[in-house]
Amino acid sequence: MSDLFSYYYFRPRSDTKPEDAAIAIAEEETTGTWTDLKTRKDYVKALDGSVEELHAEGDGYVAKIRYPAEIFEPGNIPQYLSVFAGNLFGLGRLDAVRLLDIDIPEKLACFEGPLFGMKGVRRLIGTDKSGRPHVGTIIKPKVGLTPKDTAEVAYNAAVGGVDFIKDDETLTDQAFCPMDERIEAVMGKIDRAQGETGRKILYAVNISDRADRIVERAERALEHGANTLMVDVITCGYSALQALSEEMKINVPVHVHRTMHGAMTRMPEHGIAMRPLARLVRLSGGDQLHTGTISGKMGHSPEELKRDNEILKEDYFGLKPVFPVASGGLHPGKVHAEISGLGCDIVLQAGGGIHGHPDGTESGARAMRQAVDAYMEGLTAQEYAKDHTELRKALEKWGVR
Ligand code: 3PG
Where is the Ribulose bisphosphate carboxylase large subunit C-terminal domain (predicted)? Predict the structure, then answer.
């Protein structure tokens, strides 16, 4: 495969034939426009896009479009997106159009990918042999806590048994919780928890910021002791990930949140599916990526999610696999459904499902770990809860899915 192929679901406008609608996509994103051009020299034809396949599906059609590799600038993801995810979404001849997936040729996959990847993160935590799912938490409330109180919550979660703690997507460097002070407070408590428990715990600090400042912010976070960085990839852009993994060559994992993705991924007929977005995260260097849950609070198709998680882990240009993260509305009663649906190579994150435990954060973290242990021992959560108080109280509050 030497060119790039994109797959679109679309519904043409009632006065447009499906073949013409598919051609309109290929033309708009390569050498054409709405009319013929006097400036179109013969040699430009080599860069024409083409419709390779077209078939009916559901209420619409699926087209496979070929984009010649030469129209792409290797390594420039913003430019890639402008082609296969560009103007086409606004074309009036299409009532709806959704980018389903992309096949990138090797010469355009010129990225270094994750520095740690799933196996590297597992080695840091020490789960490479057991292969159990990781348990993570998002500090809640998502905004408002002071650095000192954030650190206290982190400590309680850490001693309770989580492997991973993260800022929420809207917390960056606000006055109520300045980043430098927060990192020092949280890492101080994490060091203490690590000393007490003998376990390694990662804390991902959200460094999302404008393009010209993100590297400086990452450097500052590392200077203050951060052992993981977090980026909101849709709002910051893929360039932010590349800046960290390729420019800075950071020596800590990068956790990737996808806040705002629902505007693109949620509608089954229009937008951008998670799959191409996930592929780009892998190329541009994310080590962990939120992809969704089977039973959580965000709506999406479980079938798509399962395949999205697989593509993060299967062979892809020799790049390290990305650790998929299930997050949003999880609690101990949902752990079984998540692991049986998504497998053990998953980070199970709970914010409300830990900090909302009747006995507080530490017990909430214990309950999440107990739910994972139950699964690993082949027991149901209810069976395990009989002699695990924290899990029992969690199930009493939230039930079992
Ligand atoms: C996330 O970052 O995925 C959400 O903040 C999850 O929060 P929740 O576990 O309370 O739904």
Answer: 128-398
